[in-house]
Structure formats: C-alpha cells, structure tokens
C-alpha cells in the first residue's frame, strides 16, 4: 500500500515543483496551497480506501513483544534504582566530608 501511495504522490510532487517554477508569483500561492491540499486529501483517501478494502490486517501482536517490553521496563527500573542508590551514597559521602571539614 505504501508503495502505491509513493507512486501516486511522487509524480504529483514533481508536478507541484514544476508549477512553482513556472508560476513563480505570489498571487498563485493560494492556488498552490489548494493543490497541495488536494494531493493530501487524495493520499489520505487512498490510504483509507486500501485499509477498508478487505485486506487482512495483522491485529495479533507478534509473539514476545509484550515480554520484551516488560523485560525492558524491568531493566530500566533496575538501572534507575541502582542510579538512585548511587546518588544517595554519593550524597551521604559528601555530607560526611562536609562534617569532617568543619
């Protein structure tokens, strides 16, 4: 589907650039804006029509994704806990140094 959208939008993009080069005038900026809007509507419409055209979508997540996200979250929490503990130890050491200096 994305390739179909690419082959539709790619020539249209060059057409718009060509129009800009030919017109090269401020009064046509509104026309150009509407052309870009029309291309966007066509692109969105082609995306919607292909997604509702009966193509089977993969709605089942790949096996292991939930486990991988959980493992990543647990590892991140562990790194954060270790970092906080190190910060606490550093702070306590700094306080001891300050007290010894007095």
Report on this model:
The chain has 102 residues and is an all-alpha fold. It folds into two domains: 1-52; 71-102. Helices cover 80% and strands 0% of the residues. The longest helix has 37 residues, at 65-101. It is elongated.
SSE order, as H and E?
HHH
Main sheet properties:
none
Low-confidence spans: none
Helix percent reads over 70%
Structural class per helix/strand content?
A: mainly alpha
Tally the beta strands.
0
Number of structural domains:
2
User: Strand percentage, roughly?
Assistant: under 5%
End-to-end gap: 72 Å
Transmembrane segments: 5-23, 29-48
Region (Disordered): 48-102
Keywords: Membrane, Transmembrane, Transmembrane helix
Biased composition (Basic and acidic residues): 66-102
Throw out a few tags for this protein.
single chain; elongated; mainly alpha; 2 domains; 102 residues
Outline the fold blueprint.
Layout: H1 2-23, H2 29-51, H3 65-101
Helix pairs in contact: 1-2
């Amino acid at each position: 589907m994305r390739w179909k959208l690419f082959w539709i939008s790619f020539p249209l993009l060059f057409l718009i650039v060509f129009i800009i080069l030919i017109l090269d005038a401020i009064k046509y900026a509104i026309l150009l804006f509407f052309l870009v809007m029309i291309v966007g509507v066509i692109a969105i419409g082609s995306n919607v029509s292909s997604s509702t055209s009966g193509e089977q979508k993969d709605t089942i997540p790949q096996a292991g994704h939930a486990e991988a996200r959980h493992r990543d979250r647990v590892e991140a929490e562990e790194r954060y806990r270790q970092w906080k503990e190190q910060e606490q130890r550093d702070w306590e050491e700094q306080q001891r140094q300050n007290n010894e200096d007095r």
